[in-house]
Amino acid sequence: MMPDLGKYAAEVLAAYGLSLVLMAGLILLSLRKGRRARAELARIEAQKDA
Amino acid sequence: MIALLHRDLMLAFRAGGGFGLGLAFFLIVTVLVPFSVGPQSELLSTIAPGVLWLGALLACLLSLDRLLALDFEDGTLDLLATAPLPLEAALSIKALSHWLTTGLPLVLAAPVLGLMLNLAPDGYLWLIASLALGTPALSVIGAFGAALTVGIKRGGLLMSLLVLPLYVPTLIFGAEAARRGAMGLDGTTPLILLAGITLGTIALMPFASAAVLRMTLR
Amino acid sequence: MSLWEYANPVKFLGLSARVQPYLWAAAAICVVVGLVWGFFATPDDFRQGSTVKIIYLHVPAALMAINAWFMMLVASLIWLIRRHHVSALAAKAAAPVGITMTVIALVTGAIWGQPMWGTWWAWDPRLTSFLILFLFYLGYIALWEAVDDPDTAADLTSVLCLVGSVFAVLSRYAVKFWNQGLHQGTSVPVATGGRTVSDVFFYPLVISMVGFGLLFLALVLYRTGTEIRLRRARALLARSKKEA
Fold first, then answer.
1. Is C160 in contact with C128 (CB distance < 8 Å)?
2. Which ipTM score applies to this complex?
3. Which of A15, A22, A31 shows the shortest C-beta gap to C112?
């Protein structure tokens, strides 16, 4: 399953690991901010109608 | 225009106007360098052109927040914006007075400091020429940075962050010309490119600065 | 029916909501296929060994780092000329994505450079240009954060983006002049149509590049939606305060 990475295994894995962490972090932060904005807007609009 | 230049220069020379502050900073930075890298004269002589350029650049940066901030606070900028004189011209004049009070003294002081850093004898002319050609660009680009951040409270640090990347081409060509000169090589090519950058920024940056300032004052 | 209709925030949100599921799915498929193919199913390079696999992250990230700035430049121009708020917000939304891509490109490059060039970092023109690009992103984001009034912030950052672009290009040439590099030439020259990598490496690389592009689009659409909602929430709050 795992390809033989030879003597550079640490480098390759580190590059993939760090990049994926960075991208996941970016996506998660974006999603969290997006959800908060949605909730906030819904709350304010509900208040306005009330 | 002459009146504005006269006013800015007078304000700068008065007590508390900040004239000489940049110069003192330049001196101190240069004096600190041997403390941080060691007193070997060979090493100092290699890095002297770069250190002097970097010191001059930082000294310019340091005095930028005075360029517009005081005039913004007391409302002078609002007057200038509605005056018949185009804001582009007013900002050019302000950049010019900044150069006269900061850049020009730096150019004149650089050879003396070069002496302390054991600059190679061939390098003096190149150093002075590159600083004389390059510091106007630093002032004009700096005026843009000052205009960009003038409406922001405590914008000094932000301004450094914005201005320093813009200084990169000027620094590279200027320091390269001085370095080649000090090594006894021909520094004409970087010097011409540096002159190109300076002329280009003098011609174009005031428009960007004035546009930004109008947005802030609106 | 013109493109400018989508400058209306409501229309933009509608379209963006319809398009986004497909976009996210396509991006996920391409990124996963490109990376998995590249990681598991490509041979090692005879000189670089397995480190050649880093290319599937490095090149697409670098590509998107530059394209993100270019997109911000276009969006800033649209804002300055036509005053469409969505455009300004899209530029704002793209900046953090661009800076992340820049960091990925720099980090993967450093990790690759360590065994191959024997150094994490060299003051090579391409590396240095990317570092400068990173600084421009930082300044741009910091300026957005620092200005209170949203329209003034959009104005100022737009001009900064324009001026920054000019200086970024200048820096690129200055840096090239200043130091000859270690970095190899581009792997996928668009202009000439030729390429310097063989097919085994090329196909997963292209898929990965497309995937990063789609991911960028999806993220920007999503984040622009977030910014629009935040702006609307702010406006509503201000209005209700005025009435009270």
1. no
2. 0.85
3. A15
Kindly report the nearest CA distance between residue B61 and chain C, in angstroms: 16
- C110/C10 Cα distance (integer angstroms): 43
C-alpha dist (Å) from residue B54 to B97, B110, B171, C83 = 21, 11, 8, 40
Nearest by CB: B148 against C160, C175, C178: C160
Chain C residue nearest residue A21, CA to CA: C104
Low-confidence ranges of chain B (pLDDT < 70): 13-19
Nearest to B208 among C139, C163, C173 (CB): C163
Cα distances from C28 to residues A29, C40, C216, in angstroms, run: 17, 17, 11
Distance CA B153, CA B142 (A): 18
Pair B162, B149: CB distance under 8 Å: yes
C146 touches B: beta carbon within 8 Å: yes
Q: pLDDT tens digits, residue range C9-56? A: 888 888 888 999 999 999 999 999 988 888 887 777 766 777 778 888
Identify all chain C residues contacting A15, using CB atoms and an 8 Å cutoff. Answer: 54, 57-58, 107-108, 111-112
- Give the Cα separation of B51 and C190 in Å (integer): 41
Q: State the DSSP string of B12-39.
A: HHSTTS-TTHHHHHHHHHHHHHHHHH-S
Structural domain boundaries of chain B? 2-217
Subunit contact B158:C163, Cβ cutoff 8 A: no
Does the beta-carbon distance from C156 to B215 stay under 8 Å? Answer: yes
| pLDDT tens digits for range C158-193 | 999 999 999 988 888 888 777 765 566 655 555 444
